[in-house]
């Protein structure tokens, strides 16, 4: 059994690299692209709170509860967001992919899909996870649709599960992908990414 620990994962479009404090300024720039923290149902950090968010993730990493990544676009080296393995159960192992956000201008570019492909591939094929979990707010229809496009199945809804940043109670949708479902999910992701990876190789915009 392999332990879940920091690792660099590289694809055609993005590189996921272990989060470090020196990523702060670049992450602030990414967060300012679209000001996604203004959406009440998201957990994108405000620029003024980025240092605290980096520290929070790294503290959870020290406790073995999270492995935090910075997302870097390969074509220009630009930092575009963050993601993580979280709620880690080292005994299986089992992970949740979450606390993910990307700059608004990158949405629809394939970066998020490839980041998920890299994380899922590592979880299933290197770590041997029997299942990978994904969670989101019931009202975050964009996130729910993206998770469902992956091929994840809805396990259930945790009613009044946590409190959102505006003080309201959040219903959390819990999705998962199992080891037996992974080959079909992988094929679907690779198919979706074909156009974007071809553009990356040819230098098309």
Plain-language structure description:
The chain is an alpha+beta fold. The protein has a single domain (9-202), classed as Gcn5-related N-acetyltransferase (GNAT) (Aminopeptidase). The protein is 34% helix and 31% strand. It is built from 5 helices and 8 strands. It has helices at 24-32, 50-62, 111-126, 141-150, 182-202, and strands at residues 9-10, 14-18, 66-73, 79-89, 94-102, 131-137, 153-163, 169-178. It has an 8-stranded mixed beta sheet with strand order 1-2-3-4-5-6-8-7, sandwiched between helices. A hairpin with a 5-residue loop joins strand 7 and strand 8. Helix 3 packs across helix 5 (182-202). The longest helix has 21 residues, at 182-202. The protein starts with 8 loop residues before the first strand and ends with a helix. The model has no long low-confidence stretch (mean pLDDT 92).
